[in-house]
Q: What sequence folds into this?
């Protein structure tokens, strides 16, 4: 069995070493731009080029080194007609839960306000907010969204969730579909975005939808930047309707130096780190799925091209 490995950022040697340890009978081949790939059974990649995809029409499956598939599906008809398998959690859910819990608690206990006060040398206790009405709404209840919802429940926050198909999660007010989105937003104090970027979800959070949030709401986006209409968010923050945003993802990454988000004190920026791929866990998961496919079994986390995730 031959497995082709590629990462757009070039950091691949450790992946090759780990695959060799997990699948000792397989030959791993690190693809370089400009090469003709030897015939391979499987490809494991992140951020491929069109030249690479062109050479993968005969593999049995393509495995992604991450959870989001938008950067691959954008190739449309140039995609090889083979199953595409994304990472399913593989250690990301715990990271997401930590990140979101931190951001929600920071707003709930007003650490953002205390940070601003401290910069001005102000010693001023602020009123405690009421947890019973500090409702957190999570957009996307999938592999990463569902564990985040559980963590927020454990912290004692009222939690609501929104997904494409109806869900029944203990202790969570579940909403589904576009018809229920406005009601979901109207009762959400902290909006957490954990949706995939698809033709349906791009620019979902525009001025109209963000305005449905109650005055003083917060946004946490850990999914993809293009889900949010960035100028609309900035305008609503400057108008005071949105009290603050914690953003891990942006339409253009790295966030360009002149972007107005950098200068807005109510926006907290992190460089797309809310859930990093954990190489060893990812290799273990992918190697286990390769073994299953090779035995003619089915595997989880195959991307549905119609849905776009
Ligand atoms: P997932 O398991 O595929 O779950 C996606 C969720 O979104 C599902 O609940 C799905 O609804 C819902 N959804 C999709 N389209 C929808 C629509 N049109 N309307 C309403 N709900 C919709 O994905 P995941 O593993 O949780 O990951 C979510 C996203 O996180 C990824 O796509 C990626 O972009 C992002 N991510 C970011 C980082 C980072 O470091 N910032 C790391 C990893 C992942 P159903 O349940 O009804 O299907
Ligand atoms: C990271 O953003 C991922 O989709 O895995």
A:
């Amino acid at each position: 069995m031959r497995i082709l490995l590629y990462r757009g950022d070039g950091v691949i040697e450790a992946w090759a070493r780990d695959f060799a340890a997990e699948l000792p009978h397989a030959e791993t081949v690190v693809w370089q731009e400009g090469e003709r790939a030897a015939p391979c059974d499987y490809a494991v990649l992140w951020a491929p080029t069109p030249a690479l995809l062109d050479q993968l029409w005969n593999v049995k499956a393509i495995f992604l080194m991450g959870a989001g598939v938008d950067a691959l599906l954008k190739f449309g008809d140039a995609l090889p007609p083979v199953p595409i398998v994304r990472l399913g959690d593989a250690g990301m859910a715990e990271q997401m839960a930590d990140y979101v819990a931190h951001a929600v608690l920071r707003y709930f206990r007003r650490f953002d306000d205390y940070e601003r006060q401290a910069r001005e040398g102000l010693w001023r206790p602020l009123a405690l907010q009421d947890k019973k009405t500090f409702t957190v709404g999570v957009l996307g209840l999938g592999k990463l969204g569902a564990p985040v919802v559980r963590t927020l429940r454990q912290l004692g926050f009222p939690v609501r969730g929104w997904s494409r198909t109806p869900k029944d999660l203990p202790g969570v007010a579940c909403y589904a579909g576009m018809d229920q989105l406005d009601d979901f937003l109207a009762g959400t104090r902290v909006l957490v975005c954990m949706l995939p970027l698809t033709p349906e979800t791009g620019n979902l959070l525009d001025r109209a939808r963000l305005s449905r949030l109650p005055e003083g709401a917060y946004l946490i986006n850990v999914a993809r930047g293009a889900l949010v209409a960035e100028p609309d968010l900035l305008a609503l923050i400057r108008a005071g309707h949105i009290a603050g945003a914690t953003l891990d993802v942006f339409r253009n990454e790295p966030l360009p130096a002149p972007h107005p988000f950098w200068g807005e004190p109510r926006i907290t920026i992190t460089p797309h780190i809310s859930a990093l791929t954990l190489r060893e866990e990812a290799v273990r998961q992918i190697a286990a799925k390769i073994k299953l496919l090779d035995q003619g079994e089915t595997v989880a986390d195959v991307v549905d091209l119609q849905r776009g995730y």
